[in-house]
Amino acid sequence: MSYDVKIDVSPIYDLLGSFMVYVTKKWIRDIDLGSEWIRDIDNQLSPGVRSAILEASSWPFDDFDVLYAWASCRHADGSVRDFLNHLENASEDEMWNEIHELLPTMTLIDTRRIQTSYAPLLKLWYEHYFHHIEDEILELITEDAKEKKGLLDKMDPSALIEYASGGLVVDPFPELNTVILFPTVHNRPINTYCFYEGVLLIQYPVDVPEQDEEHPPNVLLRMTRALSDPERLRMLRYIGGEPRSLQDMAHYLLQPQESLMHHLMMLRVAGLLRIHLGRGDIERFSIRQDGASELQLFLESYIRI
User: Which parts of 171-282 are beta strand (E)?
Assistant: First the structure.
């Protein structure tokens, strides 16, 4: 059984992604923005605004699955301001109905909590940070999505997803009907995903042009850093034969899963891993063969040979 692939383009996703990165600090050492971006935002926001926004740092991380679901259910031509006004002013029944099919276990109590808690903070984030870069973000994601939409009728669905995400493989299973891809900038080079009822929502990163041609490109630095650790090389050797789960690697390499997760993230953002998703949101990992050829390509291009 196959699934349909759709490309969704909206700066709303980057609004949510940038807010999530700032308040949770999740993946901050693995994304290109890094901790320097956090410090810049801290300096940019007033103490009162910063304190208000960071209240969300202690809230459940799964709340973002709900916010992304609302973003995917918005009016197709709606702006960021339209989305924020709707989140602030719509009734809880209306907000619940919008995503009930995607999240059938969602309660009205949680709907009300998430809506009333995040609406004012996301408006603050938009007013004091995001609206300054919104046009730039929109230009980048629109250009990238145009390329991906042109490939919808030319590539197998799973091949398009792997190409866009740099290694995410979605195996068909009966419960999956639709995969929605949406481009973002702030989370690069990480791709994230949310499983819903019959729908898989995948965020994939859009690369930003390098500012300094003399400096090694970020993609090359990510690859060389990932390959500089003997433990990560052992992991690549182990998964070379067939896809392996985190549990498989922990048993074979005699390493705790927490330690392996860090190594897997390094290999993942370097584009050296394929991540297989199937029934039950179970991940398996294999080598992304294109990664080795890309390493050679970027290395030869940078050192001019």
Answer: 178-184, 192-195, 199-205, 273-277
